[in-house]
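Researcher: Before we compare anything, I want clean individual predictions. No alignment, no superposition, just each chain on its own. First chain goes here; please echo the sequence and then give the C-alpha cells.
Model: Echoing the first chain and its structure:
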Amino acid sequence: MKLKRYLGLLTLITVLVLPVSAIAGGLPSFVDLAKKCGPAVVNINTVKMVEVGNPMQDFFKFHGNNRGGINPFEDFFRQFDNRGKGNQPKQKRKTGSLGSGFIISADGYIVTNNHVVASADEIKVKLQNDGHAYPAKLIGLDKETDLAVLKIDVGKELPFLTFANSEKAEVGEWVLAIGNPFGLGHTVTKGIISAKGRIIGAGPFDNFIQTDASINPGNSGGPLIDMNGHVVGINTAIIASGQGIGFAIPSNMAKNVIDQLKTDHKVSRGWLGVTIQDADEKTTQALGLTEKTGALVNSVNTGDPAHKGGMKVGDVILKVNGEKIDDTNDLLRTVAALPPGKKVAIDVWRQGKIKRLSITLGDRNGKTAVAQAEKMSPKSAEENVDKLGMVVRKIDRDAEADSLGLEKPEGLLVIEVTQGSPAEEAAIAVGDVILEANQHKVNSLAALKKILNTEGKKRGLIMLLLKRQGKNIFRTIELKDK
C-alpha cells in the first residue's frame, strides 16, 4: 500500500516537472552569441570642460539657517557676492560621461549615439579585455537621428559587427543588448522585440524598435543584436519610470546615416519645403478620401522644391516614388532618406483626384535653423575664405542670432563648404557659426583673414570656436599653404 502511494506521488511529481523541463529546454542559449559579439562592443569615456562659478563664492554663500532665520554672516558675504557682479572670473573643470558603442569595420570605425559624444573635448575608447584607453577621432555626428561615428587606430585588425535588415525583424524575436550600464563595463542582457515603429518625440525621424532587454544609463550607443549575431538596432533611449521599456534606432535607418557620416562627415537629406499635418477622419471625409492616410499640406514655402513642382496647400501626399505614405512621420522619414537633387514622383490627392507631381528635392541640411532666419532678414554679403575652402557671412540680425542659438548677433555663419577643402576635412558644416579663431573673436572676414595671415601662417594651424546647434565646439584646421 505504501509502495503504491509512493509510486503515485512520484508520477504526480513527474507530470508537474516535465512541462517545466520542456520549457527550459526550449529557451535559446546566449553564450555563443555573447562570446562572438562581445569583443566588438566598446566602452566610451568622454571628457568635457565646463565653466562654473567661483568655488569660494559658492562655499561662503548662505541661504538662511536650519531654523528658518537669517544667517548672521549673510550680509557680510553678500557684499563680495555682489561686487563686480557679472564680471567674476569663471572656473573651468572637467566633467566625464560614459556610454557604449560598437565597431563596424576592422580598421576601427565605431558607431555610438550623438548624445554620448556631442560637445566632448576628449573621447577615449576601451575594448573588451583591454585595459588601454584609445583616443578616438570624431568623424561625424547627426543630432536628428542621435548617431555618431568615431575612429580609433590600434595598429591591428579589430573584430566588428554587421547590420541586419531591421525591416525583416519581427515582434517577439529574441534580441541581445550589450553595453556599459552605469559604467560597470561589458554587460549582456536579453529580451525580445516588443514593438516596432515607436514614436517617442525624440526627433523628427522617430521610428524606434522597442525592446524589453534591460537598457540602462551607459547602454546608449550599444548594439541590439539578433540571434544571427547581426545588429538590428542601436540602443538609444529608455523610459526612466518604466521597466523593460527601451528603444533602439533601426539598423536600416542607421546604415544610411552612418555611411554618409563616414564619407562626408555630415548627413544630406531630401527637402520638400512644406509644412504638414496628419489628416483626421473628418478631414479625410471632407476631402473625399476613402481612408485616413497621407500627409496634409498646410503651407508651401515660396521658392522651395514643392512650390517649384506645383504642390499646393490642401494637397494630401499619398505616395513618394510609389511608396505609400501613412502619415506625417512616414513622409518625413521617406523624403529625408532620399538624396538632395533627386527627382521624385509624388502622388497627391487634389479636389477628388490623384495628381502626379515631379519634384526635384532640395537639401534639408541647415534648413531647420538657417533657412528661417534667412527669410526674416536680408542677407549680408557672402564672402569666400579661400584658404579654408568655405563661404561665410556676417550675422547682424537679432532674429537670426536667436534661431542659431546665439545670445546676440556675432560671428560668421558658414553657408558653404567646398568638397575636399581643409574646412571639410576638419568637419566644418553648413550652419556652423565661427565665434573665435585662435581665441580671438571674429565678427568680420577681415578679422578672420588677419588671423589666418599672421598666427595661422606661422603655426600652420587655426583653431576655430564654433556654435553648432546651440552648443560650442572646437575644430582645428590644418592650413595646406603655410
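Researcher: Okay. Second chain, same rules.
Model: Second chain and its structure:
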Amino acid sequence: MTRSPPPARRRYRAVLAVGVVVAGFATAALLRPGDPAASAELAAIGRGTVEDTVTALGKIQPRAYVDVGAQVSGQLMRLHVKVGQMVREGDLLAEIDPALQQAKVEAGRAERARLTALLDELRARADFAQAQLARQTALRRVEAGRGESYDQARMEARTAAAQVDATLAQIRQTDSTLQADEAQLGYTRIYAPMSGTLIAVDARQGQTINSTYEAPVLMRIADLSAMTVWTQVSEADITRLTDGMPLYFTTLGHPGRRWTARLQQILPAPPKPVTSGSTNGAASSGGGTGASTVVLYTALFEVANERGELRPEMTAQVFFVAAEAKDALTVPVAALTATDEASGRHSVAMIGEGGAVVTREVRIGVRDRFNAQILQGLAEGERIVVGWRTDDGRPPRIGFRL
C-alpha cells in the first residue's frame, strides 16, 4: 500500500508548480517582442502657425491729451462742462471770479491816463524852457545878456527834456504791467486748448482756486481716436525688440479681440524709481535700484481707436512677434532632443515600418514654448513619440522645454 505524502509536502509541491508556470510565462513575455506603439504617446505631424514672441504687459493711454489748469487764483464761478463731454478747441470750459484781476486792470488804465496827462504838461514845460534857452542864446551872441541867465535857461531846458524822457519810460512800464494784468483777466475765462473728450474733471463749481505756487489742474482733455500703449519689457527680453517689428495685443474687456500694430519706439532708459517726495505717477512703473528688482524698459506703439473700444488705463497683454511661420509643419517641443542647437538640429523618435521605433534627425526653424517648425526631416502625417507610458498604464510626466 502506497503512502500519500504528508500535507506540508503537498503544499510545497503545489507552490513550486505555480512558480514554474509563472516563471515560464514571464520568460515567454521577455523573449517575445512587444509592440512599441502600445506603450508610446504618439503625435502626428500636422500644419499650423508657430510664433516666437516676447510677452509683456502694458497700459493704454491717449496718444494726445492736455491737462487744463488755472493760471489765476479765485473762486470757480461757473463750470460749463462735465466728464465725458466732447469739446472743440476754443470752447469755454470754466470761469473764475474776475473781480481782483478787473480791479488791477482798471488801476493800470487810470495810471496810464495820469502819466499821459503828466507827459503833456512836461512837454509844454520843455517847449517853454527850450524857447527861453533860444532867447538867452541870441542875447549872448550880441553880448546883451548875462551869463548866469544863459546857464539857468540851459539847465531848465535839459531838466524839462529829462522829465519828459522819464515820464515816457514810466508809461512804457505801465503799459507792460497793464498788458500782464489784462492777460491775467483773460485767464479767468478758461478755453479748450484742443478738441477731444473730457476724461477727467478735478474741480467743482464754487471751489476756490489757488495758483500762487503752481497751476492747479482742473480737467484733462484727450483725443481718444488714437491710443498709445506703454509696455513694460524686462531687461532679459528688451534686446530682442526692434523698431517696426509686428505685434498684437489683447485686453481683459475684449478677450476674443486682437489688435495689431508695429513697435514705434523703445525708450533708452527705464523710468526713474519713485522717491519719497515724488508725486509723478508715471515713475511708479519703472525699475528699482535694488538687486532683486526687475529692470523694465518702456516700449511704445500706437493703435487706432475709431470705435472707442479702447479706454485709458486699460491693461494690454502684448505679444511682440520676433519670428513667425504660417502653415508650417509643426512638432511638439517635448518630442525633440537637441543634437546641435546652433544649427537647429534635433532628433526625434518615431514609429517606422513594422511598428519599430527609429530615431530620425530633423532641422527646426521658428519655435515657441510648445511647438516648433519642421524645416527638414519629417513629412505631414508621420507619427512621432512624445513620451512613454509608465508600467501602471498612466501617461508619463512630460517636461516641456521652454
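Researcher: What stands out in the second chain?
Model: Residues 14-33, 276-291, 397-402 have pLDDT under 50 and may be disordered. Additionally, The domain at 55-63+224-322 is CATH 2.40.30.170 (Elongation Factor Tu (Ef-tu); domain 3).
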